[in-house]
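Revision sheet: structure tokens.
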Amino acid sequence: MNLLCVLISFALVKAFVAVLDIRDKQVIITNRHIELAIDFMPKIIKRIVLGPSSMKEMAFMLAVPEYTDDDNKSRMVLYQIQMQTEIMMSTNIHIQIPEIIQDNFDGNIDLSVYGNKRRIITREATKTLIRGATRDNDRDFEDFFAMCRLIGLFRSIKYPELYMIKAETDKTETCILTDRNGKIIRYRSCTDDRIWELKPNDDLIQPLSDQL
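Predicted:
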């Protein structure tokens, strides 16, 4: 009986490692897709923000590929494949799947390195979109809910340890963001035509433009 338990445990460990290996490879492959499509990233991100993806899905695709969704661990690889698909759909460019040679990597791949690399690219692209929406009146973000999602994504990229899992707007056109710890962050477009982060009592903290 003890031997059977040991064998089962060993099999489970092997299966778990195999899943991690697939995820590592997909994160690396997706990063290479992003690097090759860097000039198209604002367009790609706009498509994602205006699409049906949840805030959590956007976070794992664009901001925190190294983190794990404890509610749905099985989707971690799918988030990366979804990001690759979004790149292809937005650019109509066929990107050859990069070959990942296992011997080029040691046994302990630090996904946070790839997360940081991804955020460098996606942060700049997201800032470009925010500036376009606030300065140039990009009509795709006239709906404040779409703008709220874009702000939430930006915060997920800027503060990855507190990535956003929910975005909504209320009847006062206030953007209400919820991070992974349940903390609420709010933004509102004010009379000076700028979007401000708000305190719980509605006092102004800082304009969004100063946070970029």
